[in-house]
Design brief:
Layout lengths: L7 E5 L3 H12 L3 E5 L12 E4 L5 H6 L10 E2 L2 E5 L5 E6 L3 E4 H12 L4 E2 L4 E6 L4 E5 L4 E4 L1 E4 L6 H6 L6 E13 L5 H7 L2 E7 L2 E8 L12 E9 L4 H6 L19 H14 L2 H8 L5 E7 L6 E2 L2 E3 L14 H18 L4 H33 L19
Parallel strand pairs: 1-2, 1-12, 2-8, 5-14, 12-19
Antiparallel strand pairs: 3-7, 4-7, 5-6, 9-10, 10-11, 13-16, 13-17, 14-15, 15-16, 18-19
Bound molecules: flavin-adenine dinucleotide.
Flavin-adenine dinucleotide (FAD) binds next to helix 1, strand 3, strand 13 and helix 9.
C-alpha cells in the first residue's frame, strides 16, 4: 500500500471548506492540487461569517503568528431591538465575526497559488480500484488517489454521485448586504456596534453584526455592518421572477450584488421601513447593492464513495440560522484528515470510517436549523430570550 507521500489528492472547490481540507491533506504528505471554477482569485465575497472554533481551527492550531482577534471583530452582547429602537432583550455574548474574504486570504496565503488552479470547472468523474479520474470542461483530466468535492451547494460531485438528491427550498430567502459603519446614524451605530443584533418582524427576522472592512480593517470606523434578513417568498412564479437577474439569467442559488432587479431592491427598502426596527431599516436602506440567496436544505445519505468524498455544502447545506456552514465545511475536512491519519495509506478505509460521524453531524445541524427557521418564518415563535436560538455547529453556544 502506498504511503501518503506517494499519493495524490485533488480538491474541487477553493472556498473555505476546500482550502481547509487541501491544507490539512498537504500537511499529511499528500501531493494536493485544488481546482476552482472561477477564473480569478475569489474576492469581493465580503459577506459576514460568525466564527466558530472549527472555522478558525487552521489558524488557531497551525498559525501561531495569527490570533483570532487579528482576523475578526467582536461583540459583547446579544441584543434584540424593538419597533421604536428600544432594547427589548440583551444578554452578554462574546461572538467573533469575520468576512469570507478575510478568512479566505489567510487560508490562500498558506496554501499558495502554485497548486491552486483557477478557471477549472470539474464536470465528470470515473473511478476504479486504484484511483479517480476527474474531467474538467477545459479538456484537462487529472488522476488522483483521493478526490474531495468541496464545490458547494450546486456541487457537481454530488450531482454525479447522488443524482437524485435535490436542494429543497425552505420557503424564504435571505436578503444580505453590508454598509460602511460610518454611513449610518449615531443612534443606529450605537445599537449595532459591539453586538449581535436582531429585529424580529411578523414571520421574519433580521440578524446584524459588524465585520472587518473590505481590506480586513478591524478598527472602529473602518468596519462594515453586515446583515441577513429572512423573508418569505412562496415557491413558484414569484420566486422564479425574483431569482432572475438583471440580465435575464436564472440565478437559482444567489442573485449577486448589483444583479438584483431594481424593483425588488426598492420594495425591500420600503418594506424595511414598515417591518423592522428603525436601526435595521436604516441599514437596509443604506445598502448600495443588497443581494438575495434563497435558503435551501440539502441532505445526503452518503458522503464517501470509494476514493471520493463530499464535504461542506456539497454534502449537507443547512439554513444559516446556526451560522455554522463554514464551520461544518471545515469540520468535515478536519475529521477527514484525522481518519486518513488513522488509516495511513488506505484511502477507501479512511473514508468509510469518516462517513458516519459526518452524516450524523450534518443531520443534527439540519434538524436544528429547520426547527429554528420554522419558528421564525412559519410559526412566529422566535423568542429573544430562548437560548435554543443561539448560534453553534454542535448545538446552541457549542
Ligand atoms: C443567506 C446565507 C447566510 C449565511 N451565513 C453564514 C454565516 O454567517 N456563517 C457561516 O459559517 N456560514 C454561513 N452561510 C453558509 C456558508 O456560506 C456555506 O455553508 C459555506 O460557504 C460552505 O462552504 P463550502 O466550502 O462547502 O462551499 P462554498 O463556499 O459554496 O464553495 C464552493 C466553491 O466551489 C467552487 N465550485 C463549484 N462548482 C465547481 C466545480 N464544478 N468545479 C470547480 N469549482 C467549483 C465555487 O466557485 C466555490 O468557490 C450562509 C449561507 C447563506 C445562504
Amino acid at each position: 500500500m502506498p504511503t501518503f507521500e506517494e499519493q495524490r489528492a485533488i480538491v474541487v472547490g477553493g472556498s473555505i471548506g476546500g482550502l481547509t481540507t487541501a491544507l490539512l491533506l498537504r500537511d499529511q504528505g499528500f501531493r494536493v492540487d485544488l481546482f476552482e471554477r472561477t477564473p480569478t482569485l475569489l474576492d469581493g465575497r465580503g459577506a459576514g461569517i460568525v466564527l466558530q472554533p472549527d472555522t478558525v481551527r487552521w489558524l488557531t492550531e497551525r498559525r501561531a503568528d495569527v490570533s483570532v482577534e487579528a482576523v475578526s471583530t467582536g461583540s459583547s452582547a446579544l441584543r434584540y431591538i424593538g419597533a421604536d429602537n428600544e432594547v427589548v432583550h440583551e444578554e452578554p455574548a462574546g461572538w467573533r465575526f469575520t468576512s469570507w474574504t478575510t478568512l479566505y486570504r489567510f487560508l490562500l496565503q498558506d496554501f499558495g497559488t502554485e497548486r491552486y488552479h483557477l478557471g477549472e470547472f470539474a464536470v465528470g468523474i470515473d473511478q476504479d480500484a486504484d484511483g479517480v479520474d476527474v474531467r474538467f470542461v477545459s479538456g484537462r483530466t487529472e488522476r488522483a488517489d483521493l478526490v474531495v468535492f468541496a464545490d458547494g451547494i450546486s456541487s457537481t460531485g454530488r450531482r454525479r454521485l447522488l443524482p437524485d438528491v435535490q436542494p429543497v427550498y425552505s420557503g424564504y430567502v435571505g436578503w444580505r448586504g453590508t454598509v460602511p459603519e460610518t454611513e449610518v446614524s449615531a443612534e443606529t451605530h450605537a445599537l449595532l456596534d459591539d453586538a449581535l443584533s436582531y429585529s424580529v418582524g411578523p414571520l421574519s427576522h433580521i440578524c446584524m453584526y459588524p465585520i472587518p472592512g473590505l481590506g480586513g480593517e478591524l478598527e472602529r470606523g473602518r468596519r462594515l455592518l453586515n446583515y441577513v434578513w429572512y423573508r418569505n417568498v412562496p415557491v413558484g412564479p414569484e420566486l422564479d421572477e425574483m431569482l432572475t437577474d438583471k440580465r435575464g439569467f436564472p440565478a437559482p442559488v444567489s442573485v449577486h450584488p448589483g444583479q438584483v432587479q431594481d424593483r425588488y431592491v426598492a420594495e425591500l427598502k420600503e418594506t424595511a421601513l414598515a417591518a423592522l426596527a428603525p436601526a435595521a431599516a436604516e441599514l437596509v436602506n443604506r445598502t448600495a447593492e443588497p443581494y438575495i440567496q434563497p435558503v435551501l436544505d440539502i441532505e445526503v445519505d452518503r458522503m464517501a464513495f470509494g476514493r471520493v468524498a463530499l464535504v461542506g455544502d456539497a454534502a449537507f447545506a443547512a439554513r444559516p440560522h446556526a451560522a455554522a456552514g463554514t464551520a461544518k465545511a471545515a469540520a468535515d475536512g478536519w475529521a477527514l484528515a484525522e481518519a486518513l491519519l488513522a488509516h495511513r495509506g488506505n484511502v477507501p478505509g479512511a473514508l468509510r470510517s469518516w462517513e458516519p460521524g459526518q452524516l450524523e453531524l450534518g443531520r443534527a445541524l439540519l434538524d436544528r436549523v429547520r426547527e429554528m427557521g420554522t419558528r421564525s418564518q412559519q410559526r412566529g415563535t422566535w423568542e429573544p430570550q430562548d437560548p435554543a436560538l443561539h448560534f453553534g455547529l454542535y448545538g446552541p453556544d457549542k
